[in-house]
């Protein structure tokens, strides 16, 4: 993974390497972004699965999807910063690779669900279909797995 090493010489990477405080803040921001991402996804998926029926799904779906997208963007930005500190090490870490694979699966699941007529109907007030419920259950497993893989990185 030598081709990734120049990333560790960029200005943002050097700043993170040289400042433990900056690294701490970016790491904390990454954790908060993941909390926003997973919190929104889990809340939406649980609502699709039938919990909190008093919460209108059409409004929740729109709001929580946008919130999750914001969390994803922030997690990717801060994650790239953290990755840049030791790119070769991370790229060779099986847990990091598993995390990336699970994130990719999660994004594919989101696209698959959001491109269905059932999703569009749900955002207009229809009850979620069985396909959406299966997608929600899969989503919880995938994103939960990504979090576990992310935590596992530091232990390998």
Can you describe this structure?
By secondary structure, this protein is an all-alpha fold. It has one domain. Helices cover 78% and strands 0% of the residues. The chain has seven helices and no strands. It is elongated, with a radius of gyration of 18 Å.
Mean pLDDT: 96
Structural class: mainly alpha
Distance between the termini: 17 Å
- Assembly category: single chain
Q: Determine Rg (CA atoms, Å).
A: 18 Å
Task: Please indicate the percent range of residues in DSSP E strands (runs of 2 or more).
Answer: under 5%
Domain unit count = 1
Q: Return residue spans where pLDDT drops below 50 for at least 5 consecutive residues.
A: none
Sketch the topology as an H/E string, one letter per element.
HHHHHHH
| Inertia-based shape | elongated
Strand segment tally:
0
Percent helix, as a range, is: over 70%
Q: Give a short account of the largest sheet.
A: none
| Secondary structure tally, helices | 7
Topology:
Blueprint: H1 11-18, H2 20-48, H3 57-85, H4 87-91, H5 94-114, H6 117-123, H7 130-152
Short description:
The chain has helices at residues 11-18, 20-48, 57-85, 87-91, 94-114, 117-123, 130-152. It is mostly helical and 156 residues long.
